[in-house]
Amino acid sequence: MRRTMIKNLSEKKGQEVKIKCWVDTVRFQGKMAFFDFRDVSGKVQGIIFGKPEVLESAKDLRNEWVVEVSGVINQRPEKNINKDIVNGDVEIEITNIEILNKAEIPFELNEDLNLDVSLDNRPYVLKSDKNRAIFKVQAEIVKGFRNTLNSFGFTEFQAPKIVGGDAEGGAEVYNVEYFKNSASLATSPQLYKQIMVGVFERVFAVGNVFRAEKHSTSRHLNEYSSLDFEMGFIKDHADVMDMFADVMRGIKKNLEENAKAELDFLKAEEILIPDEIPTMKLSEAQVLLEEKLGAENAIGEPDLEPEHERMLCDYAKKELNSDLIFITHYPVSKRPFYTYEDENDKGFTKSFDALFKGVEIVSGGQRRHDYDDLVEGMKMKGLNPDDFKFYLQAFKTGMPPHGGIGLGLERITQKILGLKNVKEAALFPREINRIDTLLNE
Amino acid sequence: MRRTMIKNLSEKKGQEVKIKCWVDTVRFQGKMAFFDFRDVSGKVQGIIFGKPEVLESAKDLRNEWVVEVSGVINQRPEKNINKDIVNGDVEIEITNIEILNKAEIPFELNEDLNLDVSLDNRPYVLKSDKNRAIFKVQAEIVKGFRNTLNSFGFTEFQAPKIVGGDAEGGAEVYNVEYFKNSASLATSPQLYKQIMVGVFERVFAVGNVFRAEKHSTSRHLNEYSSLDFEMGFIKDHADVMDMFADVMRGIKKNLEENAKAELDFLKAEEILIPDEIPTMKLSEAQVLLEEKLGAENAIGEPDLEPEHERMLCDYAKKELNSDLIFITHYPVSKRPFYTYEDENDKGFTKSFDALFKGVEIVSGGQRRHDYDDLVEGMKMKGLNPDDFKFYLQAFKTGMPPHGGIGLGLERITQKILGLKNVKEAALFPREINRIDTLLNE
Q1: Is-above-0.90 flag for pTM?
Q2: Is B222 on the interface with A (CB under 8 A)?
Q3: What spatial distance separates the first Cα and last Cα of chain A, rounded to whole Å?
Q4: ipTM of the predicted structure?
């Protein structure tokens, strides 16, 4: 008999079925046994009643044992029906249980855990209802990102991770022993996606990037998944912001269509993305912060403090019904060498950050596409253009005006779901003292 | 006026349009100028005639300059119509050209190049018709892989690249300086995708993996993109082979739907995947090789020689109309520690290689899901189970029978397109002496 997925069981009333699943809970009571069974699609209640030989075969079962269960789908008595959950109206009356694998668990799966315990026991803890919901949502965020960009004519490519130097010119990098040479791990696919604009005009990449940051905070990861796009033939950074807003709408729509149950289970708030996204220059945001929002020491600073980002997001949500706000025109000094300087606002760049639910999730902007201008940008940052000869080829041989963004997958997952720590949104977070298990110092 | 993509121009006869593009070719002839313009969607012929001021503005244009061209779409004279190409029946009569960026090229873009020149000039050379076709096909291979697995209920996840040790236990690894510790780059997402089977039953990952192999051959890359899936609740390795065959069918279908023009341009042969994929044990393949195919020194060996793989593929194609052939039951000694040993054929594993058009593109099989059996596998390979404590948690806490595969993206791209060297199918191949530019020894 073929396996039936648990979510489809309530369509099988009166029929014999076979399911393959985990024992989610088990309770023995005299000559009866009660179970919840779980597969990736859902849960269902099971019962052994009046079948001593089945009871005998099931007597060792404990939580998380892996089983193949045969039985008949019965309608539950009216008083026991739970209309709020999948299969709340049925149970499986068990005729046979075959054990596929045993299990021994360190603690109950759905306990509330502190983060250290959760990370120490990751392979087990990821199976919890909460974690399965978080990472299903994360998979659907990636799908929404990709499908939206594909629909706008973007081509996906795989960016290399072993690189000669630090693309962003400033981030802390991991060194790799590369045969007789030394190399480093990419902090971003930036230079490659610019090269690829010369090839396919519109490109995106999904992949891990690496930041050797020594601090361990609730905002940082040492390895994270970056969702990057880059588009050619733009007028300016506003085209990039428009595209990113469309990507966010695509992600939201995909989540509502394919992860509604998980969003509800995790009590995620609705994502507010109005037709017009609030957009202001950094200098305007700083005046707003001091004059209306009660902040201090904002005006004239080259960047926003985390507290300022929170205040601006609160403002955008309350006053403008938006979870997203664009801050543009960061000073040249605070942005990477490839950032385009605004001809009409010298010293400031056609760059932006996207703040979302209190925190920066995206950095983006227009890039320098003119060869001489780009070399000038390198020199201003004290970089040696000779170190970028390969990259510069793309700018010598016909590069359109272009721009793009980088979006941190774990961070957007965290903010959509209202998780406290970005590590809760990372499957296997790398920390200064942890690669899966704790490292020795 | 909005930009029209070049592929849509023949629908605009008699209309004014604006295109944004590269100068693909240019020829000045007295008071006239003739162009081919190229954007990501196609090419079109352009002409300047009887417009001295436009001619003057265009006089510096050379190949690969980036331009915005306004003009009128004219039907070409009957004798000049080329029905075999997109826009072969139209040309754009240019009324204005705006220069977006200039270019200076090292050689003609579509020249035949040797591999070293191609790699030295990658950011430029990737723009050639051939390379754009290769990497469009590659993007569609990934899309076909992903869409097929999504349709079968697989969940995508991002596997970490910085790892504590070598998952495959044998491949050569790159060391990473990880703060005060040492770490390495993942040679495969294997251990993580097995852990994720405990979470989502069916999972896949697309990402780069790293092999510190010192030899530089036409078959090897030091960093490549691996397409991996893993599925729970299987009966044995045959379920995995069936799923992989379906994935290949999905890739083929997606290519035919979305990259037909590129396959034709590259003269790719049709991919033959019959309903029944030829499948034989290694020992049977070795007998076939010696008794029917004229090979020597095959029987009794623990693995196939590259020449044997080619002979078996030739046989499968000619005799069984298949580009794909599965070889199963490699000896325990030749497979990683997690490979499932066949109860009915001791010393041999429920593993397989998929050979495709002459070469192995996939390694896969059923895995050991029983904790004790897995620990036994580690010990047999001389590995210390204490080094795998994190991974083993998944096997202690309820792991279903499962199996999966890893597919090299560049290698399958190479074979589908009949390219001589796998590096031709890698955007930015890493070699022992090259990370984009040549390294100093």
Answers
A1: yes
A2: yes
A3: 54
A4: 0.96
